[in-house]
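User: My collaborator and I are trying to settle a disagreement about how two of our proteins should look. Neither of us wants to argue from intuition anymore, so we agreed to look at predicted structures for both before our next call. Could you fold the first one, then the second, and keep them clearly separated?

Assistant: That sounds like a sensible way to settle it. I'll keep them separate. The first protein:
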Amino acid sequence: MDLIPAPLTADWHEDAPPYVFGPAPVLDAAPGTEGTARWLRRELGAATGWDLPPGGRRGTSGGDVDDGGDGGDGGGAGDGDAGGGPDPGRIRLRLDGALARRLGPEGYALTVDGRGAQLAGASPAGLFWAAQTLRQLLGPDAYRRAPTRGGERVWSLPRGTLEDAPRFGWRGLLLDVARHFMPKDGVLRYIDLLAAHKLNVLHLHLTDDQGWRIEIRRHPRLTEVGAWRPRSRRGHRASPLWDETPHGGFYTHDDIREIVAYAAERHVRVVPEIDVPGHSQAAIAAYPELGNTDVVDTAALGVWDDWGISENVLAPGEDVLRFYEGVFEEVLELFPADVSPFVHVGGDECPKAQWRASPAAQARIRELGVDGEEGLQSWFVRHFDGWLAARGRRLIGWDEILEGGLAPGAAVSSWRGYAGGIAAAVAGHDVVMCPEQQVYLDHRQAPGPEEPVPIGYVRTPEDVYRFEPVPPALSGTAAAARVLGAQANVWTEVAENRSRVDYQVFPRLAAFAEAVWSRLPAPAERDYAGFEARMAGHRRRLDALGVDHRPPGGPLPWQRRPGVLGRPIEGPPPNA
């Protein structure tokens, strides 16, 4: 089978004929499975034309009969549906606590026999992943939005059983919507793409020097001014080319609520990121008093139109803290704790030149008794660490936040290699591994001049497939349990639209998904040839979904960007 990610165990009956659905299958959904039932009726119904009406067998009292059993026995071929006659085909859904004890909270089992398909989940999330596997087994046409062959299409499944469960609980993708805005429908589409690969975290990078993308009603200029820039550099910051079209956009409160609810229905958590104290020029352009006004004419600043790291950072005053507390209060309202327990505060790449030159900042350092400008940055992060913890949330930030110490509940995104994650785990902090050298998907996928806007190291799908979230320094130690999982990051300075983001993300996200879901051997022992063989079928699914993935032979003519400069780094990446 060409399942991606690969399941934990699978036993296919290759000598048995496939199970063939009738023209009007029924859906038996036990209590607690309503969410997955709705999803199947909507998604499979669109592709197949099925209505999937309820179809439990009727008892003598008129009530539905509980089939029971691991595979859901009963109601199979010849049993008859509620109206009598031959069985049109059945899909059964149920929850099974025994699976939770054996496989963990996201585990599931799927059985296909002469009675149809039986899906059992350890939880609603596990059942939803079972439904994703069912869709893969039905073939690429199951990913279409309308039937492609009218009523003639025969839908069948191979007979057999499988059990599956993820290796890690955090399986994510960072989507940078600050550098280039992705409209709401594009974000919803990416949630579906994550779910199709059994990924369960969407990290939304909402603010940066180049744009502020979330409505904050008490500070309306953050989007009235901060969400728009007059132009954008085309290519890397060394490129002489400019796109003179103004760029921007933002998500309203209702947009965010819709994104969060849409993700929750698909068992995807959304982690919002609001950057402090660096990466803040868009906010300062909207509210100049947030900047270091004693050394910079902040009133003259606009939203930055270039890439890189702006020198314009937040001033270390109490009024700035109060401003951002107001921002975070609205963020917490929009991202409820039950679906978004983590809030990302950035905390990385904060230039210190303005603080060194600012009499106000220097006075603040003396007042706080911190260790220079580095201590001032840590003070910023620690303030929001405590503020979020008091409200039942957990702070997560890039590995620079380790400098100066963290509260016990804070977590670390390790992006500068593995070192920060190792230090955090040993110190008792939870870690999400996302090392730049391994899983930054804005980095180029191949060498050569045809690769569009080449950035960073060459990271092929095979390189990503061999990514290991638990480094050797932690393997076998108690601290290894601190690795919550991993995420791939796609930064969008040179990915200006949906098609470019697709190209950078796929097919590498499929390789990443298997690396964080499946129980794979050590990186050097992984069967990449087998994965690539399965990708042949998976690419047809991506095609049906309209994903502009990179073909195996290289970019298609319209995927190239001739003459647009990138910043390729030659040689193997560190820790490769």
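The second protein, kept apart from the first:
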Amino acid sequence: MNSKLFDTVLVANRGEIAVRIIRTLRALGIRSVAVYSDADAQALHVTQADTAVRLGGAPANESYLNINAVIDACKTSGAQAVHPGYGFLSENVEFARALEAAGITFIGPPVDSINLMGDKIRSKNHVQSHQVPVVPGIAEPGLSDEQLLAAASDVGFPLLIKPSAGGGGKGMFAVESVDQLPEALSSARRTALNAFGDDTLFLERLVRNPRHIEVQILADSHGNTVHLGERECSLQRRHQKVIEEAPAPLFENLEHGAQIRERIGASAVAAAQSVGYVGAGTVEFLVSDENPDEFFFMEMNTRLQVEHPVTEEVVRVNGEKLDLVDWQVRIAAGQTLNFTQEQVLLVGHAIEARLYAEDPSAGFLPSVGTVLKVREPVNVRVDSSLREGLEISAHYDPMLAKLIAWGQDRTEALTKLDRALADTVVLGVLTNNEYLRLLLADEQVAAGQLDTNLIARKMDQFTFRTIGPSELALAAQLEYQQVPTLRTPWGVRDGWRAGVHRPIIMHFEVGDTHVQTSLPVGAEPTSIEHAFAPDGTLWLSDQGWSSAFRKLSREEVLERQLASLAKESGTYSPDVQTPMPGTVISVQVSDGQQVSAGQVLAIVEAMKMEHQLLAPVDGIVHISALQAGDLVKAKQVIATVEPILETEQEHRA
């Protein structure tokens, strides 16, 4: 432990992970350097670092993915080492090589380890040769769609398409039959190329109802490697983790769970040692729920994981918690692990929930905007980048914060986490808070009966809070208190007349819905959290639920009433609008082309998610002059579809 640490470390990341790394650097007495894009100039990680350097424009490829800009920032700031966090350049072998060439220490594994484990095909074939079990499938570099189609029958259905590069579930598609495969391969290649710059794919047998178990390892440059127990990350939506915990409930509920933990931990250590791994890393496994003794290597993440805090909360060495970032820095500086595998103990249980800017009730559509009010819980650990006034843009991942609860047992940890989510307030953008609470309340989740398909099965059963009379009355009351002109008959503009009292009627837009209510008489002030945006939109939050109410003008009310009448008469809106700001990934039709209802017209990416824009009816499409890379605004009309009358269809036929 006597090797000298670095004087200055640059954190090549943003958001909550940058804030978390800076916290440890400060504790070590190391000067921290933040980097930022134009969109993050006022972000929390920028203000908390000792100094900050601008990288470039808001798009990630102009800033956080710009290797030359990060290297220049190191030289400008005098940084001797770089911590990449996770995502962005954390597993980019060219970045590691560039740092090495510049004489700057990469706080991560050696280049060769990243290169081998960063490619799922190479890593799978490599660990298999070191007696680590792998999922059956075909994993060879450079396979074309035709070759994958030909090999699919030997792999067997259902199967899983996976990109060789990258992670986080992006580009992964489950395929049930051969007729679904061509389209899925096309989408997987496009997603992989956009996300990782590499569209290489491979196929694996799909293990039904699997458990996702991962093992945290630490390895120094002196030949010492230990594992720090396992995490269970089986609660996923579209291969993206939602809730993570340690230790794994699967093993905790088994009589021989300790023996399986020892075996899977030894496999993780073997996989890491086979590539000369140095630093913190995670080896991920699929474990059969029906046969927990059977587990398969999936991949190794050569970086810190989003869910690393649950390991930090349960691992004890000589009675003390471990700080994984602290050890990453120490190992990169040449220090030796000062403990052995036998000294690693797991104490209690920890569960983490990821708070995202998204709307679960609208298909998890990402939410953008300005954070108006924040209240974070005090009874649990919170890794967060939130602050009032923060702009949540469409350029980056929608994760806002992580809430991590520790308890003597799993039940206590679940209870603490649910209470913490109920106490969390974020106004100005929609979040998945209510969804997380519904998930934690599920009977199977409470019992630890988890698998990676649970959310897909259960999602339709979740009952989200709806806008009812009480919520509308509260919105009306707060709006009335906020706008002085509403308190006079001349300001109301609702047809006031002398004589018989007429109630004040208010109209709101909630999501895409037009609702109305009358101002309650004698309403008492409310304790529910609320905030008004600069445009007048009212945000409410209560026990994890939140919603936005925008008061409509008389003109807007009339417009919506006419639109409603038109809809009832059988007409429809021919306009195809973007759901939120984003970047055009592809345009799949040409102007004047005949299209069918439900046909994909274009694909827009926002917050690392693809959104398909579909034709509302059969007809002729008139599409804007869009091309890949173009930026679009929220509710921007990108196309109109002119319906074809039956007589025209007959003529065209």
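Some points you might bring to the call about the second protein. The mean pLDDT is 89. The two ends are 80 Å apart (CA to CA).
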